[in-house]
């Protein structure tokens, strides 16, 4: 009888241990499933790869700026597949100097490397970007302004607005911006952004890729921007990309 009781107690103890082990395993499985669901949700949130950001710090009437803008940058931008994985920005200011007005707060004058026409060209570009907003519209405008440099910026603007068939309201808005405090504000913003570069810019064009500037990035962008954008893009490699690239971070 005592042996039977011992056997029953042993069996119940073993059963209890099995139940506890099964419960722990079930809890672990549930936690694992929850973790997988969280990871999966996180992946779904960030499934869209980020575009490669290309920023050109430049100045009007600069032949080297124009060479990059009309060459490597335009070649990349004109390919619709590459344009789809690239985000461009152009910041016209370059090597200009901002001179605060001693008698008026938040008022500035500008001294430009290539004289007053360069200052006017920078202003024209900044206002076109502000009014046209979308790079699909403002980039062709800036490209047009930079054709056959040096040109009188006012005459070039009129020609480009006709070539691009801008609506009258946009032409008026750009013109008003150029001659108003809005234009001054935009150039001041470009001055602040240019002077805040790290490392500080030493020349133009100054090319920043994904918020980073190095001599290697600059050289790669000027040599073959398409290959560089393809190399840095984290999504599926587009068919327009070359099979190899010489740039490595």
Automatic annotation (TrEMBL):
The secretion signal range is 1-21
A GO MF label: oxidoreductase activity, acting on a sulfur group of donors, disulfide as acceptor
Q: Which GO terms describe its cellular component?
A: extracellular region
**Chief localisation class:** secreted
Pfam families registered for this protein in UniProt: GILT (PF03227)
Give the record's keywords alphabetically: Glycoprotein, Secreted, Signal
| Record localization | Secreted
Family the UniProt entry places it in: Belongs to the GILT family.
Name this protein carries in UniProt: Saposin A-type domain-containing protein
What lineage is on file? Answer: Eukaryota, Ichthyosporea, Ichthyophonida, Sphaeroforma
